Amino acid sequence: MKKTIKNRRLMLGLVAAGAAGISFPPHTNAAVSDADFDALKQMVLQLNSQVQSLRQTNQLEQQTHAQDVQQLKELQAKLAATQQTAEDAEQKSMAAATAQAQPPLRAPIDEATVNHNFQILGDAEVQYAQADKQNGAFLLADFAPIFLYRGGDNVLFEAGFDFGLQNSGGTIGGSAGYTTTVNLSFAQLDYVMNDYMTLCAGDLLLPLGTYSERGAGWLNKIPDDPLAVDLIPGSGVGAELRGAVPLGDSGKLLNYAVYGVNGPGSTDGTGAASSLDVNGNVGIWSDGNTTANLHRHPTGGGRLAVFLPFKPHYDLEVGVSAQAGEWDNAGNHLYTAGVLDASLHLGSSLEVKGEYIIDRYGSDAAGTIQQSGWWVQAGYKLAGLNLELPGINNVELLGRYDSYRDGMATTTDRYTLGYIYYLSNALLFEGDYEFYNSTDSTVPATQLILQMSYGF
Amino acid sequence: MNKINGVYDLITPPAFPSHKRQPMTAKHMKKLKQAENLAKLFIGLTAATIVGLAPTLYADESSATTPVPTNSAPAVASPAAPADKPVKKSLTGAELYSIHCNRCHPERYPTERTAAQWKTIMLHMQVRASIPGKQARMILEYLQENSGR
What we know:
The complex is a heterodimer. By secondary structure, chain A is an alpha+beta fold. Chain A is 21% helix and 44% strand. By secondary structure, chain B is mainly alpha-helical. Chain B is elongated.
């Protein structure tokens, strides 16, 4: 456009110069006729008219050019605004993506002022039971908290209690009302010495098998315990070294535990066969005055196990554990026990576990008595079937077989069918139906148990 | 009434005193025999299930491995080349969480506790479940990163 304007200005200049040259010819003395003068005059007038016309055209073109320049500036301003809007949008988009990718900022924990070292875990159960030829009853309301106190990174004190109710009346000599029972299930101080070893001392849950440590009401999928776990002590007062050694980087572990505790005691101090008390002997008498082991030497024991995870939710654990020590006050008789335990998970739906338990102890009159029992329990969560049915994915079906041989002619076998309905991952509605075969006439043929259990 | 690990036991007499024991009768022996047969059947079915699922288990594990990426040209690749070896993948905190928690109880959601609470609970679990310290720290890190606060 500028080039065109220049050309037009050049043409206009040439025309004007030509006109001027023609209009003001050099003075000559030659005579000019009227006709020539008129023709020249006419020509000058025409040229003047053309110049005026060109001036007007030029003015119009200049106005047009000015308008074009103004439009161009406006368009450039709009383009700049659009580019700014696009850049803002891009920055906002990037900021949003960055915010999504990064975890939300957390306020730093104030280690000095926040008392987060104290923690309560545990479980609570409400149970209804109805045995064959007996009245059904809401059997218990049980509250079993575990108190944890962490002192730094390596020290933990933990104590488990069990609060329950029982009738005061209903029997000869009973009184009105009810009593509340409080039991100390365990109380131990743990010192994590390094990544592979922990020292525990106090009233310990003993690693004789795994049930005593993994059988709390919420953890046990069937409302009552296997019969054979009564053959071995669940806890003992003493000290323990325990830990695990990794076997490679795939999660495989070698678990170990060794302990020394007071060991079993005698209910009456004698070595009579029926006086064995596997859970007694805590080192202090009920009168509070006598503090001593009931017998001379402590009891020793331990467990060794391998844990083999194949991938998450697929694993096998096999362990063997044993304990041996005196049990009567005179220290004349030994109590020894051994447990073989195994646990298998195949996916998040199938679990099979069990224990074989055997013990042997000497006695004054009955000689050596050998007791044994075992249990195996399988559970399958129906979620593994991928059925699109309402509620079905919350159900786990259970089966258990357990047996009990007390070494004194009493044998009991039990078959249990049960279920869990998971109201949540911690609130369980459990139920089972049990069939007994026992040489003990006091044992009912069947029993129904319903239980609501909550783990917290 | 006796209570075992927090559960009242309706069935087991307190000490099974010997003077209450009754001699084994033929009826009892027959019941015991039936019980033993049923137990053997149960064990057999369980063992068959395990044996039957074992190949699937190992097949799934091998298929989960990832081949090693390699820059070597295909022409120089040999059967013993690194590309044929599976990656030796170290477990993450999330995987360790799934492996260990499920041993004893249903997994608890990380959001159920705060980061500070998980620190105390994880120390308890490290002792109770005999988890090596390094693995326990990785699980704790996973739980705290995904905790409720």
